[in-house]
Task: inverse folding
């Protein structure tokens, strides 16, 4: 339980509602900023403005997945007010106060460092990335069904990379009956791919390995699908690039050659916002409970 | 091989192209009617009109999946000509000539019976229905991802019916990590559901079994999701009805109660037309080869 814990939740999208729901169930004292157009009531949660908050009692501050802008502004879909996180707010908090954000930038790094407060970047955590790989894999399945005229079942699928996302995507397409091969370069990854019952190949040899592929899913955040590689692939191959922007595909060349290549970051918030919010809520609940014990 | 076999392929959609491709590869002599706007060339295939066909040499006639209209008209997407199948055409064929169609109606039944020619309804065949259940299951996955805000993974899914489609759908959602329960009434089906590692329940008890379900997929061609059953289901439950029209759901009541219920027949031709064509081509190739042997 989080009884007597004071948490400030600021702005954001539908995902924050799942977090409020969870922390409310755990009996936290919640101050919601940027939710004035929201009609749902949550036990123990009150709507406030940044100026109303009694910062000296705040144990944790929760920012949205997108964090803050370079001038400290916070996005919200439940308010028309402009909300801004200032260094002064942080300075007024007790020393043990922790700031949780999806991602960070120079502004937030600077603020938390100057105020000497801990900053947790949730989207960079391994557990969050692995949980999020589930809706990412499902979103990829949806796109593959929408953008091809064949079934995933029996399709020849290549997954590039066996990281947190690559493993989930490979497993999911294999479960749907696709013939899945996975490209990696570390020997322990090639071993794991084999153990999973999939076909491993070395990414140093991409040009030869993608010659008969129906669907290529990239998770490697580097330019791997170069014009040299693309030119050897079948024209009908669909490319879904899950690597963070700008992706790992030469999109200009793919378009020139008439190949369909889609950059698809941020799938969890799009295809399953409720689950994506629950993922963050579960991890936050554990983190806040642990902090309570120390 | 189908060397010396004369097959007339009439009208239809993209699926017929896969059939032409396959039979051409097997060396059949193909007369294509209703493809005058098609630019692809196929070896051994010539574009003709109904009047040009030398009916006395025809071993098989292939109609589209939709068959013919009640006045004998045949739909085509590669021609503006009106194409009509007449009793006289059939009468001119040799006795062993077989007519293959996706489905039939009174007109086609009457024509083939009067001419005393065999009629094979491909979509009613068990093998075709089972192969088609693969793209149907994938189309259902796509709709489930599109129309919910949660992941399929860990969702509570109920599948009604363990027929040709129900089994594939149940297996697919289970492979994606859903908690799948399957409703049936025959004891051997309840045994099979258990063997598959899924949770069986008796469909006589629907009202109590669907109280905590996120997604309900119906495959039973009878009104099973009545207002009595729907009224006990959670409001957020998504219903995907795969039973042939009019489906097994009281759609009027579902809408009145604010529940999302989707009737989704004919998914294979929509989500995977190429695979759907290949399915028919493979089955036809086997059937035509067998006829050659006799």
Result:
């Amino acid at each position: 339980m989080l009884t007597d814990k004071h948490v400030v939740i600021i702005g954001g999208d539908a995902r924050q509602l799942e977090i409020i729901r969870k922390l409310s169930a755990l009996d936290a004292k919640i101050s919601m900023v940027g939710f004035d157009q929201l009609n749902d009531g949550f036990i123990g949660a009150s709507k406030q403005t940044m100026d109303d908050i009694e910062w000296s009692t705040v144990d944790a501050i929760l920012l949205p997945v997108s964090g803050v802008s370079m001038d400290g502004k916070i996005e919200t879909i439940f308010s028309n007010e402009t909300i801004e996180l200032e260094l002064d707010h942080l300075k007024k908090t007790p020393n043990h106060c922790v700031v949780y954000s999806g991602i960070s930038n120079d502004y937030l790094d600077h603020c938390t460092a100057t105020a000497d407060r801990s900053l947790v970047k949730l989207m960079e955590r391994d557990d969050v990335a692995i949980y999020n790989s589930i809706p990412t894999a499902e979103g990829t399945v949806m796109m593959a069904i929408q953008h091809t005229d064949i079934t995933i079942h029996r399709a020849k699928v290549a997954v590039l990379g066996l990281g947190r996302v690559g493993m989930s995507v490979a497993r999911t397409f294999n479960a749907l009956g696709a013939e899945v091969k996975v490209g990696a370069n570390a020997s322990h990854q090639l071993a794991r791919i084999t153990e999973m019952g999939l076909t491993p190949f070395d990414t140093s040899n991409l040009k030869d390995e993608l010659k008969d592929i129906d669907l290529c899913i990239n998770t490697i955040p580097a330019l791997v699908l170069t014009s040299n590689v693309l030119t050897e692939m079948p024209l009908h191959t669909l490319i879904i690039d899950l690597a963070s922007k700008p992706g790992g595909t030469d999109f200009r060349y793919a378009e020139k050659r008439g190949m369909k290549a889609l950059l698809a970051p941020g799938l969890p918030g799009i295809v399953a916002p409720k689950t994506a919010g629950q993922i963050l809520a579960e991890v936050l609940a554990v983190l806040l409970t642990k902090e309570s014990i120390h």
User: Anything to note?
Assistant: The longest helix of chain B spans residues 126-147. The mean pLDDT of chain B is 94. Residues 72 and 253 of chain B are 38 Å apart (CA to CA). The first strand of chain B starts at residue 6 and ends at 10.
